[in-house]
Batch of 4 targets.
Target 1
Amino acid sequence: MEQFSMEFAIVIAASAIGAGLAMIAGIGPGIGQGFAAGKGAEAVGRQPEAQSDIVRTMLLGAAVAESTGIYGLVIALILLFANPLVGILQGALGL
Amino acid sequence: MNGPKILFEIPLMGGIAVTETVINSWLVMVILTLLAYLGTRRMERVPRGAQVVVEGYVGGVYSLVEQTMGKDKLGFAPYIGTLFAFSLFSSLLSLFGLRPPTADLNTTVGWALITFALVQVSGVRRKGLKGYLKGFLEPLPMLLPLNIISELANPVSLSFRHFGNIAGGMVITMLLYGFLGWLSSFVFGSFLPIFNDIPILQVGLPAVLSIYFDLFTSILQAFIFCMLTMVFVAMAMD
């Protein structure tokens, strides 16, 4: 059971701010996947009979580009739900 | 959101915890075995009924492997087919209210390690040990640390991509249910106190959103995992 000391409050507050900052990584996949979708639409317009191949390639590229956004989400989830910093703090304070 | 619940412990070697993930994986194995058995029960030359679906799936997997890896590597198709079916059915378990096994990082790291071992062993078998080690020195010898890092980053990114998508969908669905429960007790609870416990607004909207979060994401992530496995193995063997 943690005591509600100032150190604990600072660590929890910093974790919450850090979780929010980690989600700024969501800008990258937004721009990248939008660009990929635009190129995919252009390719379909140029050659409509290759649509299923183009759509499959576009989805493949979009899902790989999403991975850095997912890394940011994993960091945010760790900070909110499985925070290791509180354990380090308790170890340092000798509780 | 918590981790998977530990349901019981096997008292060997200091208590091996059997979690929800393991139990749900057993359920997926039973489902897949049952589907395979029912699809091939009375096989005939001209397929009817369930055999059409199973033959369509196997034919699709073989044609995908041939298209992505080339005709000489069709031996990998059973592994790819199993991986795709296991990943798809594991992630689709969230449609039934169970915790999907792929929302646990252990599952996806296990599959990514199998892929990593497959890539390295295929590279060594095809090119010989010296050719495989020399491949790290291409195109420039001073890129050796970068090549090693990029080789090690592949299973990490494979596992985290799959885990992050499925676990993120699970978190969003849980938050959505919590919000709709609060909203229904806020809107209706003021004039009909019985509605404080019946979250009536939870009907409808989560089903629409789960078409993206559960159905589309599961199929896409299973497909991506298999495609990337095939591409890595094909690149290591050439």
Target 2
Amino acid sequence: MTQDAEIPRLTPREQEILLLAGRRLGDKEIAQQLNLSPRTVQNHLHRAYEKLGVSDRLQAARRLSDLYSGGSIPISPTPDAEPSAPVSAALSTALENGTMRRSLYERYAALDGWRRPRKLGGSLLWLILGWALAWLLIAAVGASLANPVLELIHRLR
Amino acid sequence: MHPLQITLIAANAVGFSLLLWKGRLDDRLAVLVMTLTQIGSFALTEVTWNGMRAGLLSMDLLCFLFLWALAERGGRWWLVLAAGFQLIGLLGHFAPFLAQERLAWALVTLLWGVWTLVSITVFFGVWEVMADRRFAREGRDGARMDHGGGARAAASME
């Protein structure tokens, strides 16, 4: 199977919008930047999701990154819209080496259900107790190691 | 006043201000609770009962209970972490009852460490608040909202 067969054909506009979405811009911001209506942006995004087989923009950005690593970027032969220079630059930056750098915020956004602490038995006490216990253990280990380490340093002198 | 104490108070002032500015009601209430605890700790430091610093103990106990309640209500990681650290501070009050004097001293030292960690947690809280706001904003722009789209809704990207 060739790479062309595997990579879905995205129009330049869809690519452009996906790239901007991958840069964490909202629909309104993308619409403003490309002089489109937010509704049109959403339509393009949905079509792109369908072609890529994903359901949100984070997945789409990751899929784009995976698909285009090491290969040329497939563009459907629609003559009207060439991606603008900043977007092309963003494309090459984002897809450089086939990976998109994930910021702290992106990691936060990818936490899904863990973006907020999860309750067990209707309470967060288990998390609080676990956190406190973990730090008490760290402190106990640190305190127990302090003297031997100081003695070792003293002996080495 | 010890230089570390001044540094921590200054850091707390900055972190608390940011949380008051950017945070939601739960974040702001947590800031209020922690500020009152610090003020109360200075005021009640000499109150003792049966050799225990009862004033400090009661302040720390109240602070822990409020932080726990706010964590349950607000669903913020920084509140969970701060409540955990506060629990360690609370347990530190029982260190003098431990037989080993060295361990008691270690726990007293821990109280300062706890304050430092809480100060760092406050800044993590500021970041969490900002990230949550950004996530909700992006959700509004082009996505559905989980949990019905209310004030506490978490946005999902679409």
Target 3
Amino acid sequence: MIPALARLRSSALLGAALAIAFSGIGWAKTAVVLNSEDDSISIVDTASYAETARVHVGRSPHHLIVTPDGQTLIIAMAGGNELAFIERSTGKVRRRLAASDPYQVGFSRDGKWFVATSLRLDRVDIYDGENFELLHRLPAPSMPSHIAFSPDNGTVYVSLQGTKNLMAIDLAAGKTLWTAQIGPDPAGVLTRPDGTLLVGIMGSDHVALVDPKDGAVIRRIRTGRGAHNFLVSPDGKTLYVSNRVAGTISVLDADTLAVTGTLTAPGGPDDMALSPDGRELWVTGRWRAFVNVIERESGDLKATIQVGRSPHGIYVY
Amino acid sequence: MIDALLHLIGQLQGMFFENAVEPALYRFGLMDWSEDAFDAVGFAIFGALEIALAYVLCRPLEWWRPAEGWDDRRAVRTDVVYTLVHRLGLVPMIIFLLLTPIGVVIDGYLRFQGYIPPAVEQLLPALAAWPFATFVVYIVLMDLGEYWRHRLQHRVSWWWALHSLHHDQRQMTLWSDDRNHLIDDVLATVWSGTIALLIGVAPEEFPLVMIGFRLIESLSHTNVRLGFGRWGSGLVVGPQFHRHHHAIEHARPPFDRTRGCNFAVMLPVWDMIFGTWRRAPGFARTGVAALSGPEIRYGYLRHQLEGFRRLGAAFRGLFSRRRQGFAAAFPAE
């Protein structure tokens, strides 16, 4: 049963609710799940694998990210047209920034740039990563969804889910460098240490290895139907790919990109996160309003946690 | 209990989508429609629930104390088709496909210029702590919008040509609420969608409450000798109140269709404020006096085509010096 206390909204009350929700268990044992169709976030106790609070935040929260200094959690609310900046240590909402339809958000590695894609309105917004001043706004037809940055922090790569394209944008100039066709419904984008890109081809059953210079597809690695998003293990050796249609997670060797295993993850596996000790893989079941917790070593399903409707972004403290 | 019910519906939605709809989207290369299709499944499930509740609650009333009785119920069966087509999502899906690209272009242009529509909580910050209160404000504002849309549907000749499809039903029942022309539905969606955009609260945030409101709309059309009394009829629209609005006498003065009465969809307060409230005894026959042929009795597609015919006649009347056709039967004030 969700505490009535959790049904609150507004900066001060949201912050108070989050602070109360977190105070009993501490941030170290908490996961935050964005329920995109409930306009809420679920606070989950990672020790007991139970939802402890559900807090109304704003319309259509899809993705979240931690600031480079690790102090603030930014929740992007696409339907609410705003970014909520939440202090990680206290749960207090420090700021709400008006932003047009922010769907996916990301920082360049040096923190200099903050990028938000507008899935519904076919745009990419580039902000100053420190003061969040909007620097560039450029059209990105169509359905720009996922983001990755080049190692030199000069380029952002955006998958255009409504087409078969990946586009590269010069962050400083705010100009498109190239747009290349890579496969049906490209979704998650990951930059590898050598600068090459991996893109989940959601309209098919593979991920594409892409040349960052011009978007040419180097090769395709079969994973499962609806290859969607990526997660790299902390040691950089293992790569996970969520296959949203197949209901599986492919395990790959991050260097060779060979598929070494497949994990069962029903419910439309979407975003993923690792527990702080690295032993557990937390994955949102987009269509079934739950989060699956999978033991990495054995591949066994450890827990299924009911959350709100259409859980998307997840962050595990 | 409400949370449990919502959870059950959510699980049904997810299971059906994951096992039936998503594989089809993948097979036909339509994966970019995943999120919209997921929403559509939810809409259909809630629509089915609305239909079931309306039937369980309102049909017994029709058996118990019918306002009218008919031997031939073919016209009623046409309204059943209207209800299924609308509430299970076919018509909303068509409208969504037609209007969403236009809406995205307009919304995108406004955002590109730096304009972000404020939400009602931003205009009334005190509401921010109470999501349900915000939703009530939304319902009140939307109902006000619906009242005036309804007035225009009766006042504007070409719009009346479309809306007359709803009024020509002489066998009004719980199924009649969705008896509308597709173009009229498009106009209604544009109208209410614009208002919703301006005030910023989406009805899908409170799905069970929306079912309650759709139930009120079904009840207001139910063929039952039931009024809510002196005070009740001032609080919420009921069968007797709405039957006066549909009364066949409204084809003739002083209650001709442009004046009419009882335009409110949910809250009669708007009729009180704007002088269109009518309380009267009895349960009038419904329909439009000038429209009585077989074209109004049955056939969903035939009825829709009839709407196009009336619309064409109305436009011809508008541009003709001699007001002919459909519009001539209903001269503007």
Target 4
Amino acid sequence: MRMKVTFGLFFLALLVSGPILRNEPYWMHVVIICIYSSILAMSWLLILRIGHLSLAHAAFMGIGGISSALLVMEAGLSFWLALPLAGLIAAVIALVLGFPILRVKGIYFLIITFAFNELIVIVIRNWKFLGGYVGLIDVPRPDAIGGIDFSSKVHYYYLILFLMAVTVIVLYRIYSSRIGRIFTSIGEDEDLAQSVGINVQRYKLLAFAIGCFFAGLTGSFVVHYLNFSGAELFITWQSLNIQIYAIVGGMGYGIGGPIVGAFFLTLLTQFLDIPIKAQPLVYAAILILVIFFLRGGLITLPQKVSAGIARLSKLWVRGPNHGTA
Amino acid sequence: MPLAQIFLNALLLTMLYALVSSGLTLVLGIARIVNFAHGALYMLGGYIVYYVFQEAGLPFVAALVLAVLGMGLFGIFLDKLLFRRLTGQFFAAVIVCLGLVFLIEGGAAMIFTEKQQSLPSFVSGTVHIFGATLGTERIVVIVAGAIVMLGLFYFINRTKPGAAMRAMAQDSEAAALQGIDFNYTSALAMGIGCGLAGFAGGILAPVYGVVDPYMGQAIMFKAILVITLGGFGSVPGAFIAALLIGLVESFGSWYIGQWVSAVLFGIVIVLLLVRPRGILGVEYIMRH
Amino acid sequence: MALLEIKKLSKHFGGLAAVDKVDMEIREGEILGLVGPNGAGKTTLFNLITGFFRPTRGKVIFKEDDITGLKPNQIAEKGIVRTFQASNALFQQRTVWGNVLIACHLQFKAGFLRVLLNTPFARQEEEEIRRKALEVIEIMGLSSVKNEYAQNLPHGHQRMLGVCLALAANPELLLLDEPVTGLTAEETSTFMGRVRELRDKGITVLLVEHNMRAVMGTCDRIVVLNYGKKIAEGSPQEIRKNEDVIEAYLGVEADAT
């Protein structure tokens, strides 16, 4: 436990001081992607915890993003109001959608969320108001506050880092409390949870709404960061991408896993200079390997390695024949 | 008179969807996994025909047979390598299948390049029926598809291995008690199911005239819609559903164009909420 | 006094009546046995009472309250809690202690926001309930294994844990679904002893069981089902001599005492 905290703090310090250590737009851009990807992955994992695999997470990101863009561009709201509203709108839609769909079994829920994501993409593409095929261009930057006018990547960097901190704190509180216990118990055995008095439907809706809230929030950030909102940002492949981050990182760790996965895969793509076209292939290959050989995800690697070393060193000390009659 | 045209187009779609979906539903009944990568097999079938028929110049029928055999064997391979290890693990199986899609498509994109490749039809000329004009190959596909579906029905309902498959799909425990050879039946079902996808991809490639690595995606979605409507695990259900969807899509795209896809997606959602059993399916128990 | 009344309760699956116009009552403070051959409808009846199935017809009335058709968690809130037949109806990945803590759910009052913000009220409540959970574990004699993972427990302990979970939900009426199947004679008698202790503490018990010895020895009254219908009702002595019951169990007689 102490290991986790120290490592987490070290990682946080690294992130906070990043732009100071290396003030280079390209790398800040990459890390910004890592950070918002981890928010998406963490919030998706929360939904998986209650036993539902959602393929609609990108759609909710889109709902948040487009809402935010429209609130600012059409309704004249300040970004700082549009940001939380985007999250709320996504959460409300999640509640409305969740009400019927959270009652159905895993595979049906999966197909429904898949269909929902596709539906949203089609609606966006065919409705000029939401962007159409071209998308919404010239989405304005966040309104300036204090001296920060978002003309430089550093400003965005610290904004998304702040959002990630919020996400981590909220999720940490949830997972270390009774609420987290309830969520995971629902994911493990719904019937049993019901029989001890847990209102499964209510808690499922809660988890789903919270997860989609953060997706919407992230969506808002992304469109104001890229100054663009297009359907291609929210396609179903993105939903799968998000899953891959969480699973490769480690499904068992609600906060650490997705962060590890998002950072690892995004940075890997950069380091190995993997062309965009090959990215799905590489990600999918890693995903399948992880499922078969390292089910716990990359985050369990240090544990497994040290356990392996411990076993090997015992063997070395005792010798392979020690202990046999 | 567009009516006949639309209707015949619907029949073509019906055959396409029926072939792909019955394969999918067959695999589902046996491996208890919705193989999201089924569409990718359709795509590979198309590419096999492209390379054998168009590039190597061999007769079309030979190319088609290779597509079927190739995908059949690939399916059995996937089953033994991956699906067998994932029995009972719902989430893992889903994730692996989703990953497979991108693995296969990504691999295809790298090997075959992302560009669309074109290939000619396997038979030339046009046919006039009921005032509609169709390329001959479309009629051939409709007829060939019908024959294959009939063969499939016969196989499933009148032969021993077919009966074994039905038994396994409905209740694998009871089937085991009856002494059904699981390994053999599974392999057979996977082979046939995936072979059907290869057949569909292979025979339709020359009809549509193009192949590209992502052409399986649209098909996959429709196939899921069809097996949902028809009922998970039911081959006759898949056929009826394919007919309905084919008609809706054909008439729909004529009258409301692009939005027909949205309508179809909406239908899936409502369907799964109201009657996940589908038309003929038996809602089988997902064992944990 | 009748704690639970079941009036003309029926459940049809397709054309088949799994439970057919059953009338019965459970009296406060008693241990009622529900027996019958396999497929007689006992577990279906359980499911109907606890809200896992909706009845096709009929009513379930608990303390003058019509609870027909309520959801399982609502019924648990009212005070009726059940165990499940499969011994793996536990939170497998958690320890005994973790399992019971979850099952204490109904005892918590602090709402979502308070828990999230970790208010003093929430923290205090958490501590209190943790103590109560330990008490429940002690009552069922599982203190020695409280840190074991549920899936690693031997059969007998798993059954106890199942009852523990039900107890943690503070039931007035406890429904036990074949709790001693697969247990040794010694484990069975220990278990039954505990059931009697629970009754002495004021919990009414409805017990479904195949094991006739356990049923005869512990239950105050017995109801017999066959093919979904109630065919007999009475004290263990009366039931033992009842001809319909003997006929229903023909072939299974070897198991009965």
